[in-house]
Design a protein that fits this description.
14 strands, 6-stranded antiparallel β-sheet, globular
């Protein structure tokens, strides 16, 4: 799967961007992953029968069933202008269907969309609990075109390969294929942090340890050069307080 979001939709963490450390003049920057759908075309060439979804100025999504792990299948769905790419398996499907009032035919990707929609429309739980309630091996990318919001997460053990990075223009690139992310981001990429979620308004947070800050740790390649950063939960740093409630008329997606 592949998602590229314009920086106006999802602001890439600055620490993901690799600093220039080469002596002499800098090399020419890599092309924008969004320009003319460049990275989407590369993904389609690498993955037969790939489906590309143009999100206009917000970015693009793409997915393919090529070479997928049968135990961690890829799913895609669109419900009421909410697009979602999901890979993996949810273990407590029956419980979540009951919790969100879904019918028996609902699968994992529909559960994630409904969980997000409940959160967006002022659900009773904070975002970290909504993701923490999902038990299993998973990674997902969701885009709500009605409010230009991105929402993504990975399970606590990182069972599904999931990478993110920044292209030359600061757009956010996400995929289960490290080579695709490297093509779009050069050295400015890293594995998406385990047990964490990212939203357009709230940035990167841990749902496994919601009261702790998530801090970047410089990532060094085999040649000794810094190339982006991995993100770790800082056990020593506690957040001051949880998110306050907002008025019922407010769109909760801008506050979680």
């Amino acid at each position: 799967m592949l998602a590229v979001f314009d920086r106006s939709v999802a602001k890439c963490p600055e620490a993901l961007r690799s600093p220039q450390q080469h002596p002499g003049p800098p090399p020419p920057p890599a092309a924008s992953a969004l320009k003319d759908g460049a990275l989407g075309h590369h993904f389609a060439a690498a993955h037969p029968a790939a489906v590309n979804v143009n999100l206009g100025s917000s970015g693009l999504l793409a997915y393919s069933l090529d070479r997928q792990n049968p135990l961690l299948p890829r799913l895609f769905a669109v419900v009421d202008d909410i697009f979602c790419l999901f890979q993996g398996h949810i273990e407590n499907v029956a419980l979540l269907k009951q919790q969100y009032g879904l019918n028996k035919t609902a699968n994992e990707v529909i559960i994630v969309i409904e969980a997000y929609r409940t959160l967006r429309d002022r659900g009773p739980y904070p975002a970290d609990q909504v993701v923490r309630d999902i038990s299993g091996k998973f990674a997902f990318v969701l885009f709500d075109s009605s409010c230009k919001t991105a929402f993504l997460a990975s399970d606590v053990d990182g069972n599904v390969p999931f990478f993110w990075g920044s292209d030359s223009e600061g757009n956010l690139v996400l995929s289960d294929d490290a080579e695709v992310v490297k093509k779009g981001c050069g050295k400015s990429f890293a594995p998406f942090p385990k047990g964490c979620f990212f939203t357009s308004s709230g940035g990167l947070r841990s749902y496994e340890h919601p009261m702790n800050e998530v801090k970047p740790v410089p990532r060094v390649d085999s040649s000794g050069q810094v190339c982006g950063a991995t993100f770790k939960v800082d056990a020593e740093t506690k957040k001051e307080s949880s998110m306050p409630r907002v008025g019922s008329a407010a769109n909760w997606s801008s506050h979680y």
